[in-house]
């Protein structure tokens, strides 16, 4: 299935530019995925050096966002894309904004470790299952983006319910922890913020799914839910 | 100061379209500002009916975002804008995404009230000063957007430090509250989420400032801080 229709352009140069910018998104996505994976591993291993490296490298993701954004604006001005080409550029502009915010989450988790280096350890372990699930969502949505695969995007979209359930259970666990020993409240709140941030990664992956659907189907499915979403996505 | 350079277009119709879409952004912004104001008033007055109305009207903001987004893509495809016209369209696309998320914050605050209708009241009062300050930031950034006023945008940008300080103080207050009476933890956590959401409104207003600066100066100042930010903004 050649959703990209890249063969149709008269300008081979335009093809190359679109292909390059798509590849840059995937490189950026790979970097963000690595940072999130490293951040969760740093929690597991209580590895402060790893956490410091993650905090120190967030600027790379930011720089990539700005560069890809500029390239997209340049393509619009120079190539005046329409129809699916324009949708692709718009989908890219929105996708990189989500990826940048996911990179911020990795940084925030890493900072939680470095800021609490000498304090008693809160129950960080409860973040692991949720963390693994969101990393898988991010990995799969980047894969769907690479192939502009509608079905894969819909599958990732539906995974977020599980992240939400994980999150609810983490919150209940942390709440019990605080109520049993109120002295832990400041440390546990840090874990709560991290849990919230990880939960938001699932939402952001859902947004990227919506941009893939927008590109493939030409329909804006944001803010639709349940039957309305299914109908919009399935209509030919 | 005519930053808009609207007079330069050969096509009067194009002028009208750009002017219309800018006006729609201001209408959307006004609606979001009203919802945030109403949500904070509902907290103050413990007004559940008002809170339910806010929850019920978030779809209006969502629909406006989708409509303006579509109109921007249509303008790009049909009018093939370049230079400052293209920057204006890009700034609009990004601004409405921030406004939509600010609308979500109003909804979340309202839901916190409706979901906890019959439970003991947590110390909601601590959100007021912070809430007032972020509403003022939102009002002022919309005003700066209407006039594409660089100096006004920079002034709003700098206000966020005060919101951050308010937020820190709210968090400390709520933490003390929980430690003194751990039975209140579930309710107080709701207030914490609301405080966090309001603090994020300040960040989102800063993002809109960055889009105004991008339009006026043609420079992407995201992810720059301190001297680097000042230098980029002040360079001719």
TrEMBL record, chains A, B:
Pfam families the record matches: PhoU (PF01895)
GO-annotated molecular function: hydrolase activity
Alphabetized UniProt keyword annotations: Cytoplasm, Hydrolase, Phosphate transport, Transport
Compartment annotation: Cytoplasm
Tagged with keyword DNA repair: no
Name of the molecule in the record: Phosphate-specific transport system accessory protein PhoU
Keyword Hydrolase annotated: yes
Family of this protein: Belongs to the PhoU family.
Subunit: Homodimer.
GO CC, one annotated term: cytoplasm
Boundaries of every PhoU domain copy: 27-111, 127-212
Function: Plays a role in the regulation of phosphate uptake.
Organism: Aeromonas simiae
GO biological process, one term: phosphate ion transport
Primary localization class, coarse: cytoplasm
Taxonomy, superkingdom: Bacteria
């Amino acid at each position: 299935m050649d959703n990209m229709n890249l063969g149709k352009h008269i300008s081979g140069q335009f093809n190359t530019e679109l292909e390059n910018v798509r590849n840059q998104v995937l490189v950026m996505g790979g970097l963000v995925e690595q940072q999130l994976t490293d951040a969760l591993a740093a929690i597991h291993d209580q590895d402060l050096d790893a956490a410091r490296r993650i905090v120190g490298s967030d600027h790379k993701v930011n720089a990539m966002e700005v560069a890809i954004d500029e390239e997209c604006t340049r393509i619009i001005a120079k190539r005046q894309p329409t129809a699916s080409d324009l949708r692709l550029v718009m989908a890219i502009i929105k996708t990189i904004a989500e990826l940048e915010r996911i990179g911020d989450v990795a940084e925030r988790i890493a900072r939680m470790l470095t800021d609490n280096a000498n304090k008693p350890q809160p129950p960080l372990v409860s973040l692991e299952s949720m963390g693994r699930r969101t990393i898988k969502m991010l990995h799969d949505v980047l894969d769907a983006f690479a192939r502009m695969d509608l079905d894969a995007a819909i599958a990732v979209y539906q995974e977020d319910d599980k992240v939400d359930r994980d999150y609810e259970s983490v919150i209940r666990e942390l709440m019990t922890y605080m109520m049993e020993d109120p002295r832990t409240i400041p440390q546990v709140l840090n874990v709560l913020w991290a849990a919230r941030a990880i939960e938001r990664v699932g939402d952001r992956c859902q947004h990227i799914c919506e941009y893939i659907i927008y590109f493939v189907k030409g329909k804006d499915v944001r803010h639709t839910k349940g039957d309305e979403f299914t109908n919009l996505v399935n209509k030919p």
